């Protein structure tokens, strides 16, 4: 820009500022009136809001509590159902291959050195019979069956019927 253009833009700015000052000075009462109206409207709205709160405070508190419990209920429901997965059932075809018939491992049976009666008691234990049922089926007294069971536990180096049955199946001396 040239220096004359700068001078003219400066003059135009000065004229514009002078014009605005004159307008504001001449019509300042209109500006004051508009500002006072705005303050009064704000004051009235504020008072209306306060009276609304005071008059209906119980309703507002009940409504806020209802909203709070609704949100809390939704959150709890989401927490409880988030981790659940639908059960999926899958169907597979299984081919059953006939196993070869069970064979008693005679070597293991001979290592234990069980008598015939002790072996019979063990076989009935594996089938799930109680001492009384074993005594009845072998035509022996209950104390005799308990003696045979005790001797059986010592020879098999176990402390209970369950362990004796498990060891017998593992050694393949009973089915």
Automatic annotation (TrEMBL):
Residues 107-172 form the HTH luxR-type domain. Keywords: DNA-binding, Membrane, Transcription, Transcription regulation, Transmembrane, Transmembrane helix. It comes from the Bacteria. The chain crosses the membrane at residues 30-48, 60-78. SUPFAM superfamilies: C-terminal effector domain of the bipartite response regulators. CDD domains: LuxR_C_like (cd06170). This is Response regulator transcription factor.
